[in-house]
Amino acid sequence: MPFHPTLCDIDAVGDNSSAVCICLLKQHIANLPQEAFAKIDNSDDGLFYATSRFVKHIDDVALQAFYLCAETLTADGIVFDLMSSWVSHLPQSFTGSVVGHGMNAEELSANLSFRSYFCGL
Question: Which residues are registered as beta bridge partners of 80?
Fold first, then answer.
């Protein structure tokens, strides 16, 4: 089966839960101060991701917005879980096939929702 990533996008999905998802994400990002986007450590990112941390990489508000997006997905395709780790960005109730991408192989291997995954900058 060819790999076709599914994106939660208001234009592609076009239903109300998708619109709510996009609005929540935009609202959350808009409320962050500019310094929230600044890199604190200027060293090579590969050094940071070389060590497994097993922490959530997004906060609970952002995760809930992703869960709303996931409600619009069907289980007959393949979902690409971008910037993932040991915790999926999809709710446990999602039964579709998931391919993960992240920065630490040990964390990705602990994510039981993945059919497969790949790691790298």
Answer: 99
